[in-house]
Amino acid sequence: MSVLSITGLNKQIGNHRILKNIEFDVKEQEIVGFLGPNGSGKSTTIKCICGLYHMTSGKILINGADVTTKRKEALSALGASIESPSLYPQLTGRDHLKLMGRWRKVSRERVKEMEEYTGLGVHLDKLTNGYSMGMKMRLMLAMTLLAKPKLIILDEPTNGLDPQAVFELREQMEAIRREGSSILFSSHQLGEVEKLADRVVILDQGEKVYDGIIPTHLMRGLEYHLQVSDVQRAIEQLSGEVGKEIRVLEKGDGWIALTIESKEQFNQMISSLQSNQISVYDIIKCEANLEDFYKTIYERSGSNDKE
Ligand SMILES: Nc1ncnc2c1ncn2[C@@H]1O[C@H](COP(=O)(O)OP(=O)(O)OP(=O)(O)O)[C@@H](O)[C@H]1O
Q: What's the pTM?
């Protein structure tokens, strides 16, 4: 079952159609990256999911419950950190967890568990106005997780975090998944999304322009371009044996492109070509990444032609 299901979501404010027929879902234990340039409609979508905005039309189900008609049930399955980190500067970390615990009606034991989870130690009893971004993020995550929601929404969770804190966040997101929750997170940090998400949904000017996995050949360093003596035989030899998504490159002169997923596969590819007397004249390891993918998507959706 989908933990989040959005169908035909439209949002109009005045004459401005902010969201145009958005549809996507998030499955159990999935981590989905929510991307798009400034003003593309990510926050508006998130606010509709959280019941903070009325939709003009459409349907949003959280864990099977309709956000409009079964609001309480739907929102009880949701934990969201949408204007992160929005903390009260004059309260301590522990105060925040206690307050949230009372509000979400969770046991004292669970609050204690999440106090531990923050890893904040003595800082838990200090005012949050002295916290670093990483500390704030850990507290926000603990507050979001307190009621064990099925769906967790994080708005730009990597914002302002240093590489170590991003690494920790990644570990925490994996742990959240293991405990049975799903995550939808928005971000502008494409490199991070590439590392964190199973799948991405991309909006552009209020429309969904992509929903799917990040193609392997667009991940950093996985695609190789090879110049070989016999393209046809090289493809026959390598297809199904090593490499994936083998294709002939238009630049001519015997160039093919293929995805290699490990060093072993790389070695296997070379020995397979050599043992079949196919010479390799040149090899280029491509540094394509999600940013390239992003550009491709926008070009395909014609966003540059729109106003
Ligand atoms: N309350 C509002 N009234 C009028 N227009 C709004 C309102 N809220 C958002 N918009 C418009 O809707 C569009 C989408 O905004 P939204 O904040 O959802 O984009 P976003 O993808 O989250 O952008 P960012 O990455 O900058 O956070 C923008 O053009 C914005 O100006």
A: 0.75
